[in-house]
Amino acid sequence: MIERLLVANRGEIASRVMRTCRAMGIATVAVFSDPDAGAPFVAEADEAVPLGGAAPADSYLRADAILDAAERTGAQGVHPGYGFLAENADFARACRKRGLVFVGPPPEAIAAMGDKREARRLATAAGIPVAPGADATGLDRGALLAAAETVGWPLMVKAALGGGGVGMRVVRDPGELPGAVAATHRQAATAFGSDAVLLERYVEAARHVEVQVLGDAHGRVVHLFERECSVQRRHQKLVEEAPSRAVDAGLRCRLGEAAVALAQAVGYVGAGTVEFLLTLAGELLFLEMNTRLQVEHPVTEAVTGLDLVRLQLLVAEGAPLPEEVLGARMAGHAIEARLYAEDPVRGFLPTAGMLHRFRIEERPGLRVDAGVADGSVVGVHYDPLLAKVIAHAHTRREAAGLLAAALAGARLHGPATNRELLVGVLRHPAFLAGDVDTGFLDRHPPAELAAPAAGPATGPAAGPASGPAAGPDAGRLHAVAAALAAQAGRVAAATIYPGIPPGWRNNPSQPQHVVFEGAAGAVSVGYQLGRSGFELAVDGESLRGVRVRSCRPDLVDLEAGGVRRRFEVHRVGDLHFVDSALGHATLRERPRFGDPAEPRPAGSLESPLPGVVRRVAAAPGDLVPAGAVLVVVEAMKTEHHVAAPRAGRVREVLVAEGQEVDAGMVLAVLDEEGAPPPREASPASGGAGGDGRVRLAPGKER
Length: 702
Known about the structure:
By secondary structure, this protein is of the alpha+beta class.
């Protein structure tokens, strides 16, 4: 019996496992890195052990430190969650060697199926079709290109061990293959501790369908139906659902039989997932088997009513599969959306920073598996997943509507998220019709899906006066609400004449003005309290059709075009977060008297996001062509290349490998192609100074 369980993971999956442990009366132990010291999952555990470090290699991949923590706290078992060490056969063996129960399959099954190369061989032996592929580990350029020709173009480069889409790249041009393989090598080694790489034929416009399997130590393996995970970005799942609209009873039987046969071939015990591609022609192709609990397991739990973590624990203790598993049936439809800290419009660049508010309203049929709370800090070292939001309803359309409404009504105040994209997907006619495959976001660009819906006119046409319509400008109403809430806050905080509104004059005077920076640029709001109420203007245009019903520092009630709406305002320093039925806005208030910014050198190349410099590919004085990669920044499992926008000569490189950088930080400076080379750095002026800044050209520091 497991009475105390160590959870060797972080974030939402650690919280998820602990929730079931509490229901089963099992005490829990968390392990945590330095950045995660204040994370919710640490507080939820009965005990917690620091691992130190920040990067996965210095924390959650330290198997010996994790096993030492289990022994120190008296844990009888270890649950690996997903990612990190979850599919590491050596870690499972080490648990067994120390007398700990590994809540997962036997090491032999992990070794067989956790390595995609061996899994492909076993699938072929079992008569399950696979896409053409080849092992690319350790191949030189010539051998690599030869292997690619046997696989066929286009092809996918992927890590041979691990999952989650880490390092996956589609390559269509042979000239890009060596660089793609090298990048996947780096990412796989960082995420999974192995740099083995696999080439596989890329199948376009296919559906991604997977089967949940569950086995016990008594030789019984069953499947718990399918999930569809076709809506993806960067080959990572965004929206998952069960059941799949593309799977009928006959195909479901074929999928289940193939998945069970593969699991039985390796003596599988525990929860696992067998993944397939379903082509336009109806052909099934084996992709891989994930020897762990999947991120998207809640949709299976919703439609079957089973707790997969509970079943994992029971099976790990040696119990046979219970009757409710053997007789499982599906009811209704479930859809999960992954809420990420990232900006879909900017190529899904990860975002980071303080999450000032995180609220998703409880609703019947809705489940939220979150790894964050108010005050959580989203860092650069781990996956940017904030939460999984799952809706379960009688029909697929109802589930999609419930999930979209919950996401649209969430209060997410902090780094940019993919919330608008998810809502756009869930409400899109093609998605609702079931017309989805792995190319969904290619056909429906994120910028269009994430675009806010048109709002009401608030210009002269919104009132009794005639004139042209002001157009869809919910953003202007959000800015007005932020300005009015701010003035109400100043009134509430005033200690002298607190009843007099800001800007009041005995004789009529100029209105008060405030300028905000938002997603659409700068917007100026003017307001003045007249005899008949507030007089409002945005960018110099009077809003005669807008009436202020009430105004508090946290809530503004506006009537525009005959419709009343409440605008919630949350202010943090110079940031104003506004939420309403029209959408959401994050506005930064400009100071009235700002300090002039120091001009940056011409040719400065900035980091597009906060992260860690993984590679510096240029040096001062180098002549580089347009498009040459100068610096590689890694953040949240993804590499981002900072390339030369034109041919030129590198004047300065201002960062070093392993250095953490912020978004907007200057990484290098590129001169015109004919510029003279920079002087060599001398011992007195070059190298790293006492402040830690890198100085690679005399007289230039950042």
